[in-house]
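User: I'm writing a tutorial on reading structure tokens. Could you give me a worked example: one chain, its sequence, then its tokens, then a sentence or two explaining what the tokens reveal?
Assistant: Sure. Here is the example chain.
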Amino acid sequence: MNDRGLTGDNDWTQVSIIIHVSNDAVQIEYGGFNNGSGVAWFDNLELFVNGEKLIEPEHKTSLSQNELETLKKYIYPLRTCEPDGGDTKDLQELDSLIGSGKVVALGEVTHGSSEIFKMKNRIIQYLAANHGFDIFSFEWYMPESSKLNNYTVLGEGDPKNLITGMFWRTEELLNLIEWMRSFNRPKQRITYTGFDTGEHDGSIIELLNIFKENEAEQQRISELKKKLDEIRTRSVMNHWITISANENEVKEIDSILSLIQNSIEVAPIEISKKYWLQQNIVIIKQCIRGLSTIPRRDRSMADNFLWIKEQNPNSRFIIWAHNGHIKKTNQMMGYYLSQNLGDDYVTIGCTFFNGNFTGFGDTWGLSSYEAIQAYPGTLEYLLEQLNEPIFILDLKKIMSDNNKDVAWLKERLPYRRTGNTGGFPFEFEESKITDDFDYLIFIRTSSPTTLLPNPN
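And here are its predicted structure tokens:
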């Protein structure tokens, strides 16, 4: 539309666009914008597929008494979100829901909902203490996460500083880390890991540390860092992870990485450290090739997690990430993990009806934002009619049962997807919740996470 947009004052004018959509497309986003001053109105939007008008279905807005009674058979009320060390009988439902699954992914609909963070902490403590889940993996950078593991296992470092960046320095995350430290006394019982990608600093430090006595390698790694920093500086206006290196830069960096890789292979270090350094090479390659699309980032995160799992074949894992990453559809991280792990991969999403959360705003400053209250037609609006403040919804059983009174849950429904941005007008999007997750935790009201003071 760049060469045929409307300008000046106009009466209502019909504008149409015809485009070819690839068979590989997983979603289509469309809308209108006013590229300048003044006011623009957009109305009467129509979408045609192969010449046939697409009619959006009307979403369900209420549940009959019979539907409510049936739905109650698929929920498990929970005592509290608080990891208070109290009665855990309500969590015993997880025993059968998770079964022998090796990987449990715990989602979140925002990166700043206190109740969700606390609920996940409570579940993590239960699974670690009662079912031998011994590796925790967070949506954060891999090298930086290994430093945090040094605290949870050995007590090294200041946890308040080490959690900086992990969806911000919050009291809720600090409480989780302090519990892990306590749980690892007198012997290690849980390991902290990360699987995210997009930054090279931590990997460069790992390489510099291992070759600190090798001047030639130090110089080579410093040259690599300079090139990576230049790319990041150029990219910062578009949030680093949205721009990849150009073709010549990729070749230059690949050449340097190949030399460093050779040095790692012949270095007199134990094999586990070699594997770790080689993984840091992979992380840098993921960075320079860019993460300009969410599926590309999610594929990298899935690969990183599977690498962690490969190093620990006898462990059970808990993943902490946004709902959008753990879900089993749309080429997200959870899609690749589900394809690779099958029934060993268990997903538990989280959502809420109303409240507030911590997030970035228009100026990318951290603050508390009011969430859009679930409105008629959304999943959360319908679940609120159960009048239960906290519960697990058994989507897996709903999928297996042929019960007409809950068949509406198998259809596309708008549900919350917020993320880390406050004041965003599109907090809900349509999807099949039963395809995305095995189970869903519903919490009536969200409050913002408690931010810790920044270090001096």
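What the tokens reveal: The longest helix spans residues 215-235. Residues 5 and 35 are 10 Å apart (CA to CA).
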